[in-house]
Design brief:
This protein has 279 residues and is mainly beta. It is built from no helices and 23 strands.
């Protein structure tokens, strides 16, 4: 049976609701009904560690400016802080493994995030519309960057995707118009459709040699991009992948266009150098 209360063990802001998990092994935060701008989450409730910020727990709590999470937190669920438009500061304990879909969507005042060293999954639209997010550190524990994860983060200037990541979701960095450089780790096998669409300041991108698939419109309208090297591991490129990249020269290790590349992959006829060899 679930138990509801305002106050957990240790310091906790009034108005925070907790409950015991269905299996009775941990507690979670399920809602905030308080008025304080600065929120502190307890580390225990009913003698159990508080491990989860549940789905929608702080959704649209526009008064919240800061949140202090205990070290026991392992998961931030879908929409946990979505719409907290005045949230400026939140600590991210090392044990957080999952950041759910829309977890911080439209948190318009967040300006930097250091993801915990044990984070494995960045959910779909996790930081969607965080228009002031200027920097983020992705640790080498992350394996997946969800679709639209950083959609519309218009101040994000650079990103380094570690070797642990295997996939970049559709529209992951769409409309990141201040993004100037991207390094894609050597374990990434797929770059999703529109992953970097309309990143108009993107001048440099390094694509790891494990990539096999580049999705539709992946780099469309990256009007500042001047060069990109495509390794011979890439067997699929979608339609309009580099359309609208007026300054771009494409260097391909393949001698000729592979059969799996769409006929309109290079729709705007950027110059292509075939048979390019690194070093």
């Amino acid at each position: 049976m679930c138990v509801f209360a305002f106050v957990g063990c240790g310091k906790s802001t009034e108005g925070v609701y907790y409950r015991v998990s269905d299996d009775g092994t941990y507690a979670e935060v399920i809602n905030y009904m308080g008025t304080e701008n600065d929120v502190v989450i307890a580390n225990k409730y009913e003698g159990l560690p508080v491990k989860v910020i549940a789905e929608g727990a702080f959704e649209d709590c526009v008064q919240v400016a800061s949140v202090k999470l205990p070290k026991s937190i392992t998961s931030i669920a879908n929409r946990a802080f979505s719409g907290c438009e005045n949230l400026v500061d939140i600590n991210m304990p090392d044990e957080i493994a999952v950041i759910g879909s829309y977890a911080f969507a439209d948190c318009n005042k967040l300006n930097n995030i250091d993801l915990p060293r044990n984070t494995k999954i960045i959910g779909n639209s996790a930081f969607y519309g965080c228009t002031r997010l200027a920097s983020i550190t992705i640790p080498d524990s992350v394996t997946s960057i969800g679709g639209s994860a950083f959609y519309g983060c218009t101040r994000l200037a650079s990103i380094e995707i570690p070797d642990s990541v295997t996939s970049i979701g559709d529209m992951a960095f769409l409309f990141c118009s201040s993004l100037t450089s991207v390094v894609i780790g050597d374990s990434v096998t797929s770059i999703g459709s529109q992953a970097f669409y309309y990143c108009t300041s993107l001048a440099s991108v390094e694509i790891g040699d494990s990539v096999t698939s580049i999705g539709d419109k992946a780099f469309q309208s990256c009007s500042s991009l001047t060069s990109v090297v495509i390794s011979d591991s890439v067997t699929v490129i979608g339609v309009w992948a580099f359309a609208g990249c007026a300054k771009l020269t494409i260097y391909c290790e393949a001698e000729t266009q592979p059969s799996g590349w769409d006929g309109y992959w290079n729709y705007t006829n950027c110059p292509v150098v075939w048979g390019y060899k690194l070093g």
